[in-house]
Specification:
Strand order of the largest sheet: 2-1-3-5-4
Number of strands: 5
Distance between the termini: 87 Å
Helix content: 55-70%
Number of domains: 2
Order of helices and strands: HHHHHHHHHHHHHHHHHHEHEHHEHEE
Radius of gyration: 26 Å
Strand content: 5-15%
Largest sheet: 5 strands, mixed
Structural class: mainly alpha
Shape: elongated
Amino acid sequence: MSESRSRLLSTCEWVTAGLITAIALCLHIVRVPSAGPLWRDEVAVLNLARMNWREIVSYFPHEGFPPPFLALLREYAGFLGTSDTALRVFGLCAGTACLGMVWLNAALTTRRAPLVALALFGFSPVLFVWGDSIRGYGLGAALIMLTFALFARAIVKPSPGVFWAALLSAVLSVQCLLANAVLLFALGMSALVVLIFQGRTRHARIVLGVGCAAALSITPYIGSYRNGREWDVVFRTQLSFAWLWGKLCGALGKPAPGMLWVWWILLVLAPIGVIWLLRRNPARKSHPMGLAGFGFVSCALALVCYLVFLKALGYPTQDWYYLSLIAVLVLGLDIVGGVLAERLDWVAVLRLALAVGVTAALAAPAFTQAQKRLSNLDLVAGELERRAAPQDFVLVAPWYLGISFRSHSPIGMAWETLPPMSDLRIHRYDLLKEQMTLPDPLEPLRRRIADTLRSGHRLWIVGALTYPEPGREPPSHGPAPHDRVGWSEFAYSRAWSMQLGHFVETHGVRSHRVELAAPTPINVFENAQLTAVEGWRGE
């Protein structure tokens, strides 16, 4: 390709990257007014951050974020307040920081427009929805991306400043999001492989020291998380790699299913490109070869290590669990693509075409996702304030909706969750475990519902109950763990919902669902129904 055509292609790359970044920034900005009130996971983290330090130290494993992140959120809320807008700006800063790290990685490594990373990451709801939440996922992803960029820089141009910055970034990344320790291990091992292959053992020892320092920084939390394994047994389960892979693919395939094919193609082509580079330029200390090798090995090790970690953890995962992993993958693939584009003009053209095609295909569905509310419990509470009488009773089912409802419930209104929980500031699965050991935890709820309906007042159900098939009795479980289902929170919650649903269906005279006028679509994780039940029908 002639020099003039090369300059034109380079200009197109930078212009396209700038446009993608501008569109991606708009998605994050749209989230600030569109996301609505905090949903339960955000409310719980904010409540935890605002507790006294003794409680923070006791309860931080319940929300999964180490105390330094909670301290940061605490100071932010103390300085700028706890309004929805102020807290959404906190999330905006975290999410946009990830985009900034994409550019920083390109500047420190290939010095080419980061088209692959922006195309894969910029339009992903995993970033602009969950990365922009006030939990630690967005900031944690940004910090592990910074660590990746600094490790890659150490391969291209090592210096004491780079290694000290990598040390600080590595420590901060695990202090923000504990799962980053697994990714940091993968990045450290990838850098070690490349540096040892290049014969740079001194630099390899420094990278090893960075990883060890970050690991030592989280050792104070080991006891707390080990104690947490006593109560997380209620939702911990045996997950297969196939199930985890399916969840990861679901996260990668948003906001349009075709994106998964783009990921598949790039993940297959990356090792082919690295092998071609190795055969073409076998020099050990070749910086481009080292960069491409680090990018690909990081992708491979991060995938394997993270899925093994999630399987050992045993928690049913959602999209946000994979944000930091996806962040590492996009940087690794971008480096491989950038190195290949420097040597093969047709690869540079394909990178540009990929970025333009993805932007054209995903911009519209991404903006649709960006406008989704995360909760409608403020709308539910508003309807209750308009319609409910002081003597009515509100049942919130399942119990975890009570974490959000607590922030919006009308003053003086009597309400309780299914099952009853004494602390709804955070996700207290230890209290849920206690409820599972009781012979009949629903008895106070049945009594309160009966008294309310007998007196001519209404029962309001926020969320939903489950109703058994006609003619069938609801399932019942004895005190855990002696029942056949052991500590299965799902089994007990389903049984409790069906038992109370059967009670309300048997004794309530009539019910109707209240239509809630939502200004925008609502995320499925907290889109609660509101149902009114009236009248009493005896035995």
